[in-house]
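G.,

No rush on this.
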Amino acid sequence: MEDDLDWIAEDFMGPLFGIRGADPLELRYIYKTNGQVPEMIMTGSTTDISHIGEFGWYDWVMFLDNTPTFPDDKMVLGRYLGPATDVGTVMTAKILKSNGQYVCRGMLRHLTQEEHDSPVHVELRRQFSESVEARLGPGASDTDFDAEDLMP
């Protein structure tokens, strides 16, 4: 087994990295991470994954929309769809707007307890859900899928 790894290191990894005649053990170490991500090895700092765990899928959020609302920037109601891995900073998220479109924004927050309990905000969330359903159709239910495709 060890000889197989030496062959892979010498004949594959060496040319891949432009290294000839190097010790196979040194070449193998290129891929050895000891349970760390490459960024940790290179920079010495732990990768920030807080954007993944801070919001749950389809959580209610307030976000800063691009529509100017001078003099105050008004936060808009939306639904969190997940991190936007291909746009902006690591904290940028995809957010569903009431018109059924999604936007990528970095300025967002959870609803406050006051907003969550407010009758006015409860009505805003109801209107939001109705608007999304009118544009995208009703949400899926268990009856839309075969029983063997559903997880227990």
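When you get to it, here's the other one too:
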Amino acid sequence: MGVSVYPRLRREVVGIDPLAMVGKALAHEMERLEPVARHAGVMSLGDFVAISRAEVDELAMEDPPDDLEELPEPGPDEYSWFAPEDGLETVRALTKHVDAMPDAGSTKRDLLEDLEFLRRVLEAASQSGVTFNLGMDI
């Protein structure tokens, strides 16, 4: 099935289904995109990921890793939430970078689709005054 990343909104925004995001390409390339974000002077996508202690414990129970370092580092029991405008800055910087990449077939297309979906969710969240974070399905 693979890892995927998706936006979580602190409260519902009418007409937006954040869980409809595929997010596999973005999750796969997240680490490689981190220096791009840093160079652009924006937060990396990983900065927006929020995972609770309960989620880490659940992951460990469902599919115990061979090495404990494979588990994500949990945050506090409560999620951190971020201004969608910060996420939009990151999405715009990453989209500009990915768009300028040589055509890499489905990877580039899938990344741009994930970034476009995330942009639409964050714009709707911004207009509604709703904070967000990123969740991961592992």
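The chain has one domain: 4-137. The beta strands are 4-9, 132-137.

Enjoy the weekend,
O.
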